Amino acid sequence: ERGDLPYLAMAHHRRAALLASQGQQRDALSHAHEALRLRIAHGDPVTVSIAENAVGWFYVLAGDSHQAKAHCQRAVDRLRGAGPRADLANALDTLGRAYHGLGDDPMAITCYREAIDLYREAGNALTEHMTLTALGEAYLDSGDYDGARNAWEQGLRIAIAVAPEEAD
After folding, report:
1. What is the pLDDT of residues 126-163, one digit of tens each?
2. What whole-number distance in Å separates Cα of residue 158 and Cα of residue 160?
3. What is the sign, positive or negative, of the torsion defined by CA atoms of 133, 94, 113, 90?
4. Using one digit for the tens of pLDDT, what is the confidence trace for 40-89?
5. Distances from the Cα of 31 to the Cαs of 12, 59, 132, in angstroms?
6. CA 70, 73, 75, 76: dihedral to nearest 10 degrees?
7. Against a cut of 0.85, is the pTM above it?
8. Residues whose CB is less than 8 angstroms from the CB of residue 103 and which lie 6 or more positions away in sequence, other chains included
9. Among residues 58, 33, 61, 63, which one has the least CA distance to residue 48?
């Protein structure tokens, strides 16, 4: 009613996250796309990139890695030049998941490793742990068992230190 596009976009994003947590991926995507549309209308490039990455994430959850890759690549491209490094790390993580879903493990590994470096710079250990877990899966699927074990052991050490409930 007030025409507050950023808050309306945030409401759509949160609704998308809630629906996704309930397994309603297609409905989540509808709200994520609306959040992206509103962010574009508002015009802030960083929040547009974050919304673009969110759409990519919901496509990952829905199992559509092709669409996920397209959205995440746009987010990464925009954030490389002008966005916060933590947001770039998030977009690289999601892009890695899209590549992994497409079976392109070398590209997934490249994205994950860059995201991990950025998370370390930012001191974001919990997110680093989650990306290390995904990196291990990509290494495993590529046949690099030592790489998988190393990534998982690093992730486990972090989880034990910062999020013991995640360590299981």
Report:
1. 899 999 999 999 999 999 999 999 999 999 999 999 98
2. 5
3. negative
4. 998 888 999 999 999 999 999 999 999 999 999 999 999 997 778 899 99
5. 5, 12, 29
6. 170
7. yes
8. 141
9. 33
